[in-house]
Amino acid sequence: MTSVAGSDPVSRSTARPESYAGGMLTLFALDGIPEIVPGDDLGQIIGDAASELLDGDIVVVTSKIVSKAEGRVVNATDREAAIDAETVRIVATREHAGGVTRIVETRQGLVLAAAGVDASNTPDGTVLLLPVDPDASANTIARTLRDRFRVAVGVLVTDTLGRPWREGQTDVAIGAAGIRVLDDLRGTRDSSGRRLDATIAAVADEIAGAADLVKGKTSGRPVAIVRGLGHLVGSLELPGARAIVRPAADDMFRLGSAEAWAEGFRAGSSREEGTRG
Predict the structure, then answer these.
(1) What is the pTM of this model?
(2) CB under 8 Å to 69, separation ≥6 — which residues?
């Protein structure tokens, strides 16, 4: 077990052990998480439900209960205004029989439908906003659990997103603490000895998706424990999930097709007007 001291009890190497490949991974959801209300201490509640955590465990927490604990609840009648307030950039819009779907970028840097404003698993007449700072939320939970159990654990805060070109949704990490969220394999060799020059595994998102298989969407079990990935757990000073967001300069798909066409048309019109002038 890792030696513990202070609020960040780990000085774990983040080197990938040679014995990891083919190892066993264990995932299980926690029972006993009550209905969360504003002001609840999630670290304390998760600790009570877990009863024991092991060194290297990763605690995966659905963002909805983080939003509830942080009071990110608004009246459903204000949903459109809430989406507007959470949006920093409209990526794409599409009209359909039920209205208009907006894909937007939020202040957290996420690109998703309706700015993540969600009416599921919340009382009638209300909707939930995403946590203001999911990385900070994860850090608070991690510190509480590390102090209580005196072991090094990582924490992920997750939400459900759709994907371009793919049907269905999957959970991804929107907040993280004490875990290496990206596994940079560049410079290593594959099984055939070929050098990897571009591979960076989004391990936090992979863990989030796997954990959702045991949490489920309707089971009332919003927290899961992932065991067997201790080599990814480290200091609380590690970068959070914000590090997974691709910089705008590297984003080849920054706009929806209609928005990109309109932007190009405006730019072309402006150049034509300038030439005439």
Answers:
(1) 0.84
(2) 36, 37, 38, 39, 40, 41, 42
